[in-house]
Amino acid sequence: MRIHHLNCGTLCPNGARAVNGSGGWLEPARIVCHCLLVESDGGLVLVDTGFGVEDTRKPRQLGAAFALMRPRADVGETALKQVEALGFKAEDVKQIVTTHLDPDHSGGLPDFPLAEVHVFADELDAAMNPSLRDKPRYRRVHWQHNPQWIRHRAEGDEWFGFDGVRILPDLGTEMLMVPLAGHTLGHTGIAVKANEGWMLHGGDAYFHHDEVATPPSCPPGLRFFQNLNNADRKQRLANQGRLRELVARHGEEVQLFCSHDPHELDLAQAATASAAAA
Length: 278
Prior knowledge:
This protein is an alpha/beta fold. The chain has helices at about 15-20, 55, 65-70, 80-85, 105, 120-130, 220-230, 235-250, 260-275; strands at about 1-10, 30-40, 45, 95, 115-120, 150, 155-160, 160-165, 175-180, 190-195, 195-200, 255. Strand 5, helix 6 (about 120-130) and strand 6 form a beta-alpha-beta unit. The protein is globular and about 45 Å long. The mean pLDDT is about 95.
């Protein structure tokens, strides 16, 4: 099994010091959309999609909030174009597993219309029938093609002290959805058994690597953004605490990363390149 760490969208809001924790206060920040492409025995699996091709052509369809985040309209960063650059076709992506359905995680769904899309039922229900507060975050344009939704419930097996829902057994890929609600009501992490151990894609459970360090810290801009956009702040902070405990106890067994930290993406891509060259 081979796993690719992809950046499927870059956001460049002003205020690098407030967002990335370094650089100037007025310099553009760098926020990535860290996705996974898993080459399994039964086809390709995407973990999140980042932005889609149409999002790069029509950024306004992402909504007003994303205009402030200044997305880079680079079609080459989309999951579809990166899949094609690796020699595959859109139809080779058999499964998409989503951490949640915000546009920067689900925008590429229309580019893979034949894929089955795995999502927690609470997340799908919130996206299909959003509350007044949630209407800006869920963009119907990303599922007008009627995806093949596969609904999951947050119950199943235990994974390093977390609940887990094992999925995709027929593809020969050990993968679990690990409930991490808070950012959205149906938010989940995605655990993948790699050749060298486990990795956990934490989605938007946290935004900066120092949030899962001990003691934790977070740049002020990211802290403000998370408090503004969480569906359940108490649960989000509780799950961050559980992730810190996971790192402290099992950091050598589990590689943890989130969706938007460029430092974590750079480390993962460098490690992959080093292993490939060895």
